[in-house]
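Fold it.
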Amino acid sequence: MRGIAQIRRFNRTVTQHVGALETCFLGRDRPLGASRLLFEIGERGMEVRRLRGRLGLDSGYVSRLLRALEAEGLVRISRGREDSRVRVATLTAAGRRELALLNRRADEVAAALVERLTPEQRSALTAAMGTVERLIVAGAITLDTADPATPAARFCLERYFEELGARFETGFDPARSNTAADREITPPNGYLLLATLHGEPVGCGALRCHRDFGEIKRMWVAGSVRGLGLGRRILHRLEELARARRLPRVRLETNRSLVEAQTLYRTSGYTEIGSFTSEPYADFWFEKVLARP
């Protein structure tokens, strides 16, 4: 496929220019992998579990890199304050100095990459890199059905309630809203979709299965990944789940404050209908007729 060949050629070009192939990345006596850990740990430190998830690396490989950095005196591994089972990587004073040096040298590499370009070319390159980064992040987000009782699912649902409380004119009280209890969004009664990026939850959506329609609930996307089309992906996947259950249509409700959501639904083939619920926070109700799978 032509697109695949272009991506591979792009990868080869970038890895060469940023020095990823060198055994001494940025002129230091370590490869890219170890230096990348220093960048990710940063000034605040990070749980080892999150490091593995963010970089998509094997547990054993990350452990070997961290041991090497510990031996250099750059990293310290300790137990978490709230949970002693959690391991946390932090930079030592020497590690912070090394990170500052790496940042300066990375800036120099980036500057050298663009110094021969015209101002117009630099602007074009920067814009293109931003687009590539957003699309790569979008492609890295996974969607899977999940148990609504899991910590990742609870995190998304709590952020969803918090955002509604901040955006609705009258605030939001989950106790007053129509329910979407765990049992109602767990098979066979329904489904919860969880979006994750590098192992971290970044979005969710739910489907309640009624006798003759599916009801879409709990649509939420983290601010850090908005603008990547994730909301539309979640919506379409929920529709696929409804089709698999042979439900002829899906319905949903939304508040006037959620202008972006209304635009998403209208541009995804939903039409406005009369009220089909007694939801006190709803101002608009939508429906979409589904084609047979």
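The mean pLDDT is 92.
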